[in-house]
Amino acid sequence: MYNYFKTVALCAALLLTAADAGAARRKPLKLSAANIDEIVAAMTHEEKANLIVGMSRSFSDAERADVGYTERIVAGAAGTTYPVERLGITPVVFADGPAGVRIDPRREGDEKTYFCTGVPIGTLLAASWNDELVADVGAVIGNEAKEYGVDVLLAPGLNIMRNPLCGRNFEYYSEDPLLAGKIAAAYVRGVQREGVGTSVKHYAVNNQEINRLGNDARLSERALREIYLRNFEIAVRESDPWTVMTSYNYVNGEYTSESRKLVTDILRGEWGYRGAVVTDWGGGLDAVKQVKAGNDMIQPGMNVQYETLLAALKDGSLTEPEIDRCVRRILELVLRTPRFSGYRYSDAPDLEAHAAVARDAAAEGMVLLKNDATLPLDCSARIALYGVGSYAFTAGGRGSGDVNKPYVVDLRDGLLRSGFTLNPAVDSLYVEWIRRENERLAPIRAVRPWYLYDLRPNEVREIDSAIERGAAESDVAVITISRTSAEAFDRHIERDYLLRSDETALIKSVSRAFRAAGKKVVVMLNICGVVEMASWQDMADAVMICWQPGQEGGNSVAAVLAGEVSPSGHLPMTIPVRYADVPAQNFPLNVPETGLNQSYEHYSTSVKYTDIPNIDYTNYEEDIYVGYRYYATAGVPVSYPFGFGLTYSEFELSDLKLERDGEKITASVQVRNVGKHPAKQVVQLYASAPEGTPDRPAVELKGYCKTALLRPSESCRVSIALRIGDLAIWQGGETGGWSVPAGEWKISVGTSSEDLPLSGTLTLQEPPGRTN
Ligand code: BGC
User: Fold this and answer.
1) Are 291 and 318 in contact (CB under 8 A)?
2) pLDDT above 60 for 5
């Protein structure tokens, strides 16, 4: 009897297998959300290794691989994953970057152009303190990525501005982890609502460019947790980015992409991240370690990495489950992409509509630092426009944060379009000068690699008579000071952080002549990051930072100068009095301008050099005291504090209410426009740990809110919510944990880290811990 049943069962099984085989012949196995395990099981080792290692290395159509060149799919994109056609696994196309999609604007044998909108740099977006606006900018970039066939945007960059000289600060948001994390989360939400992914980068502690592939960032566990990971934690928890990009550097002796602690234990284990992790382009050395750490994708990919993975699978030093974990996460990413769902991209995003978003965003992130009854200007004002920057704006930075934008509106164009009159003598002198400077620079620019910082025109030499005429014939002087920077380089103190002598001389002469004639001087800072101000700002009646405002910059600045928009940006970093005041003094300095990429001069793939401080390793001696956490605690005076920004109006803050509901704290405050112009205000909330808590910063930003536009006399009530866990501090070194000191916390509210007119206390009885 038993045998009978066994035979029947066997026959049935054989029949079923035959039927399955028949079905399989008819319908080949193709990736779907329901069959990831089956797909993984069906993949060969070669296919798995291929999927992990980017396709730049071996596909014949990608042979021009220079930082992941994917000519045939989306020209100028940064890289792709390997497709496995037999299993329906489509490639994922990655493209930079933070200030707009970076792809080639022209293609061989194709008349069409593929320009992308150049939005303002990350620092300007953060200076808006406006999450919704940042999300809208993100949506513009996300839409262009989708319409040009890109699946994942390699942005946002949210590393902490530890030192004002970091060459990539322009891509980044803030010296404060809360602001950086919130702005990044808003950006990610915006991009991803268009159905394409993001890559929050560079995870983590990537705060200098010089020797970025070989530098070891050495810091305490507390600084790591409270400052350098906190921004990523907020972004990951609040926006669920499709991917996270590990950084180039080492952290405490280990490459980030090879660090199980960073990639698996903290990112996934503690923060619950479920997306995929990708290396920075060429980051890390050991492909096997990367896979074991949980770094799923290696971009742009080299044959040696592929071979290494295969060899490790063969000799057992890499196990099937280890590689499968990465493969599975890449497949989950593939499933989310527009390319997988067969999205037919148009190659024709609405660039005009997007330019309008870029223009409005730029205006909102400008920071008015000083205004001695000078701005806004009357539209009939005759302007004498000085400084080569006014005629050749820097719209953004260089390197992977650059964008091939269709045009840049200079300040001159913007002012003319807004109906201002420019002094003709000054204008024609500069226009002719710029023409000649551009001619001089054209051959050098033509052979200059895309990643090097831009060459700026020199200042006009014979300027005296133009200053005299300007002062006699115009109502006001506007002088633009411009800066440029790029990845792989850090900025210099001389001629960069400090104004150049010709720039200071220009401000001095213009100021003397205009003030003698009873006229005002405006200095516009078209910059990528902090410049020294204490030595020259008294010569200006108004100073505004317009940052690098993207392709519409001139129009945005003109709208603000004309008072159509009140500036409402606030500094996302401190402007110190002197560079010597910066707490993070361990930073590479005075590297000679050899024209070579400084990042690679003390780097080898076979040796880890450890001899040169700040090049081979950097000791983060300032610990958690980065930016205002240091200045405010040590009582060091600054030129402008973190969070500072004027508007054309005046605001009054009153009636702070602190309410607690379990874990949740809500602070609300009344904001009233008591001035004469419609404007927005940024309300900031800082916490100070109970007296006696050892080693705590005087204040720490814990929340912020930007009001809607308030008309004169109009008021509104704003609320800022936080959780008690947000007050936690890291205690007990590497194996320690988070805890919230009990006692009386001071909660202060105001409009900068130094202007906090309202405060209240919050009494915490016993440490409630911190919910992950
Ligand atoms: C940069 C990344 C960028 C990648 C791809 C790297 O050099 O550090 O930020 O996304 O290149 O272009």
Assistant:
1) yes
2) no
Nearest to 173 by CA among 212, 201, 150: 201
Confidence at residue 581, expressed as pLDDT on a 0 to 100 scale: 98
Which has the closest alpha carbon to 375: 530, 158, 604, 561? 561
618 phi-psi bin (left φ>0, alpha ψ -120 to 50, beta other) = beta
Q: What angle separates helix 45-52 from helix 303-315, to the nearest 10 degrees?
A: 140
C-alpha distance from residue 173 to each of 169, 523, 532 (Å): 7, 23, 19
Assess contact for 249 and 752: CB atoms under 8 A. no
The answer to whether the Cα torsion of 373, 377, 383, 388 is positive or negative is positive
Maximum CA extent, the chain? 116
CA of residue 608 relative to chain centroid, distance: 29
Task: Write the burial class of residue 712 (CB in 10 Å: 0-12 exposed, 13-18 middle, 19+ buried).
Answer: middle
Contact 326, 334 (CB under 8 A): no
Q: Which two tokens stand for residue 570?
A: 């606030």
pLDDT grade, residue 66 (50/70/90)?
very low
Q: 279-292 b/e with 16+ CB inside 10 Å = b?
A: bbbbbbeebbbbbb
- In 575-678, the DSSP E strands lie at 575-576, 617-619, 638-640, 651-661, 664-673
Burial 100-134 (b: 16+ CB within 10 A, else e): bbbbbbebeeeeeebbbbbbbbbbbbbbbbbbebb
Q: How far is the CA of 106 from the centre of ligand 1 (A)?
A: 21
For 8-38, what is each residue's pLDDT tens digit? 334 444 444 444 555 545 689 999 999 999 9
- CA dihedral sign of residues 197, 546, 755, 652: negative
CA pair distance 196, 742, nearest whole angstrom = 44
Token pair of 219 as six digits: 């810091």
Give me the numbers of helices (H) and strands (E) for the chain, helices first please.
20, 27
Instruction: Residue 195: name the closest of 340, 36, 88 by CA.
Output: 340
**Mean pLDDT value of segment 679-706:** 97
Q: Nearest-CA neighbor of 388 among 319, 305, 463, 335?
A: 463
Q: Which atom of ligand 1 approaches the CA of 97 most closely?
A: 10
Among residues 276, 398, 366, 692, the alpha carbon closest in space to that of 558 is found at 366
Identity at 198, one-letter amino acid code = T
Alpha carbon nearest to ligand 1 atom 8, residue: 280
Q: If you average pLDDT over residues 543-563, what whole number do you get? A: 98
CB of 336 within 6 A of ligand 1: the answer is: no
Block residue for tokens 């460019």: 209
Is pLDDT at 544 greater than 60 in this prediction? Answer: yes
d(CA 42, CA 52): 16
| 249 token code pair | 């550097």
Tokens, residue 174: 């803030």
What lies within 8 Å, CB to CB, of 589 at 6+ separation is 165, 493, 614
3-state secondary structure of 343: coil
Is 94 touching ligand 1 by the criterion CB < 6 Å?
A: no
Residue 620 burial (CB count, 10 A): 22
487 CA to centre of ligand 1 in angstroms: 9
Q: Tokens 């004309």 appear where?
A: 562
Task: Measure the CA–CA gap between 159 and 203, rounded to whole angstroms.
Answer: 8
> How remote is the CA of residue 300 from the centroid of ligand 1, in Å?
10
Find the catalytic residue in 131, 151, 216, 280. 280
* Closest atom of ligand 1 to CA, residue 300: 5
